[in-house]
Amino acid sequence: MADAMSRLGIVDWGIGGLGVVRELRAYCTRKKAASPAISYFSDTGAPPYGTLSVRDLEARLRMAIGFLRGHGASRILLACNAASTALPLLSDLDDVSGVIAPTIALVTRQKNAKRIAIIGGRRTILSRVYANALRKKGFDVVQKIAQPLSAMIERGEQRSPRFETAVAQILRGTTHYTALLLACTHYPAAFASFEKQFAGQIIDPLPAIARAYFDAKVAPHKNQDAFFTTGDPHAMKRATRLAWGDNFANLKPKKILL
Question: Distance of CA 166 to CAs 169, 183, 216, Å?
């Protein structure tokens, strides 16, 4: 059981982490548990995290973490797979966690996932963080870089023919695999597209990530959630509505400069 926290800081390049927030809220509702206030940091004003050098990614994450701490966050979640691959560089920060460990724990519990295809952004796939861990546990793994998809979801294109074509190209060669891991927090926003094109089990890690971070004692709060972006607040609001529906109907992201 983790120590009580009053505000959870969440870092993501874009809106993928809002899917985690949605699941966190739903989990707390089911458990009739108090939820912490959330400070959310969307960094679309920076290049996609998967394209940054290791040094630049670390610096960017430390900047975002410092910002969230300055806004009262007592615990930080990197709700982005690319960012989470940089956790070893942040080992001096004991209040920072990522999405990779709970995702691996989820996959290892799936009885039908021994032959698994993993799709994710370039940094996530090239890090082999999932492939290495799962192969050690006896899984047959194939990896596919799906770099364009997160940016397309940010633009609200997940229901377009162009997106369907991109998914079809990425999933080539996976027909003999029994499970598909969505190794990017953006991808569950396009679950229907993957479901249409992949015949096996599709593993959405967002609920498991939510449980991992809300199986903690949480201090009740009266503070409102706060949302910040280094990009375009209007674009963030539109993308959020298209990706996550009415879950964030009152979203009012604040533009920040870092």
Answer: 5, 16, 39
pLDDT in tens, 16-74: 999 999 999 898 888 887 777 899 999 999 999 999 999 999 999 999 999 999 998 98
Whether the CB-CB separation of 194 and 216 falls below 8 Å is answered with no
- From the number of C-beta atoms within 10 Å of its C-beta (0-12, 13-18, 19+), residue 224 rates as exposed
| Residue 190 contacts residue 158 (beta carbons within 8 Å) | yes
Using one digit for the tens of pLDDT, what is the confidence trace for 59-112?
Answer: 999 999 999 999 989 899 999 999 999 999 999 999 899 999 999 999 999 988
Among residues 210, 206, 226, which one has the least CA distance to residue 218?
Answer: 210
Ordered strands of the 7-12 beta sheet: 96-97, 75-78, 7-12, 37-42, 226-229, 254-255
CB 54 within 8 A of CB 89: yes
Token duo for residue 31: 């458990």
Listed in sequence order, the residues at least 6 apart from 56 whose beta carbon sits closer than 8 Å to its beta carbon are none
Q: What is the dihedral of CA 27, 242, 48, 201, to 10 degrees?
A: 60
